[in-house]
């Protein structure tokens, strides 16, 4: 039997605004997954399709790519800031490892921060990252765990260098191998102490 307008059809009813929270959550989940798999410039229609929503729904929640990326990666920064609050001198090494893990797992996070710096002067992600690193670095230096010659700008330079390795590696496993070699070869310099 061919369904007509009078025939019951097995379809989920449009719940309108009641589905807004679920739709937003599905969009963010899909965005995190596709940004990680395909990079920051993955088509937004692919994210909408992955989330099971129409493009109009995606754009109602996130009119711009950067807004979507900020929301998708906010938990990266929140996790980083939470860890930075640990007063242990070893926190700095753990922050560095987390930053590398996030970069290997989600290189799009770094792409988003770089693009945000150029496009959205109000974005405070890099400032938040600097503040978190600075407090942990200061404690590590006071404990003698990290050289006094290292500063936050040097850490962020090392991070950008690591991103270059990650962005050009054929796979995450090869990215980790290359990062380990790079930091091992820098054993006499400041980068070696960052690795913890």
From TrEMBL:
<protein>
    <submittedName>
        <fullName>TetR family transcriptional regulator</fullName>
    </submittedName>
</protein>
<dbReference type="GO" id="GO:0000976">
    <property type="term" value="F:transcription cis-regulatory region binding"/>
</dbReference>
<keyword id="KW-0804">Transcription</keyword>
<feature type="DNA-binding region" description="H-T-H motif">
    <location>
        <begin position="43"/>
        <end position="62"/>
    </location>
</feature>
<keyword id="KW-0238">DNA-binding</keyword>
<keyword id="KW-0805">Transcription regulation</keyword>
<dbReference type="GO" id="GO:0003700">
    <property type="term" value="F:DNA-binding transcription factor activity"/>
</dbReference>
<dbReference type="Pfam" id="PF00440">
    <property type="entry name" value="TetR_N"/>
</dbReference>
<dbReference type="InterPro" id="IPR001647">
    <property type="entry name" value="HTH_TetR"/>
</dbReference>
<dbReference type="InterPro" id="IPR009057">
    <property type="entry name" value="Homeodomain-like_sf"/>
</dbReference>
<feature type="domain" description="HTH tetR-type">
    <location>
        <begin position="21"/>
        <end position="80"/>
    </location>
</feature>
<dbReference type="InterPro" id="IPR050109">
    <property type="entry name" value="HTH-type_TetR-like_transc_reg"/>
</dbReference>
């Amino acid at each position: 039997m061919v369904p007509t307008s009078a025939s019951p059809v097995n379809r989920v009813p449009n719940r309108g605004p009641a589905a807004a929270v679920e739709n937003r959550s599905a969009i963010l989940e899909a965005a995190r997954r596709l940004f990680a798999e395909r990079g920051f410039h993955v088509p937004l229609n692919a994210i909408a399709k992955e989330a099971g929503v129409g493009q109009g729904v995606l754009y109602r929640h996130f009119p711009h790519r950067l807004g979507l990326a900020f929301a998708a990666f906010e938990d990266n920064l929140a996790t980083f800031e939470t860890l930075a609050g640990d007063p242990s001198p070893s926190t700095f090494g753990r922050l560095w490892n987390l930053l590398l893990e996030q970069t290997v797992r989600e290189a799009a996070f770094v792409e988003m921060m770089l693009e945000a710096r150029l496009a959205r002067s109000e974005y405070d992600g890099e400032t938040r990252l600097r503040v978190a690193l600075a407090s942990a670095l200061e404690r590590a230096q006071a404990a003698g765990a990290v050289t006094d010659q290292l500063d936050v700008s040097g850490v962020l330079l090392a991070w950008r260098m690591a991103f270059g390795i990650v962005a050009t590696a054929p796979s995450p496993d090869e990215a980790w191998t290359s990062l380990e070699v790079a930091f091992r070869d820098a054993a006499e310099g400041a980068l070696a102490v960052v690795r913890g």
